[in-house]
Amino acid sequence: MKKQESANLTASQQAMADLWEKHMRSEFEMKSVDDTLNTMVDDPYVNHIPVLTGGVDRDEVREFYSKRFIPQIPPDTETTLISRTIGNDRLVDELIFKFTHTIEMEWMLPGIPPTGKRVEVPLVVVIQFQNGKIAHEHIYWDQASVLVQLGLIDDKTLPVAGIDSSRKVLDPTLSSNKLIERASRSSDTITP
Questions:
Q1: Share of the chain above pLDDT 70, in %
Q2: Positive or negative CA dihedral for 53, 57, 62, 63?
Q3: What is the CATH number of domain 11-185?
């Protein structure tokens, strides 16, 4: 991820951005559990909201990073920063997360063997800081979009978007309301 700097940031906000960039490099480039944890408070937590993976407290977060996250990041993973918002003690990144599902990814796809398929999904990370360190991460993505791209759910009959969700984030001029229009044309209805 490219380092973001702005003359509009306070020194404290720039320090948060720099620490978050270091945290991301430690995970995705250096693949170092210790360096990643060194950016965090003594009792951090990580919550991947769609699948409830992560950990609470240093021991659980260490185990999560060392067994389920860092070694299970696909080698071709890419992140593209779309937007960043920084407050007094919180940073929010909107990203496009891209990878090929060539390895087991318990942290994102528990129980799903590698499919070899390419995935691009919008992802939002909310990072809370405390005393100059990362206290917690809340990470959000549309799991249905991921599952469509892996061929595990049908985007022809369900109101899900697949890769189009990340393409629309990158290009807001792409057409909207396709799922609504498809549903209004279809005589098929889904009954719960």
A1: 93
A2: negative
A3: 3.10.450.50
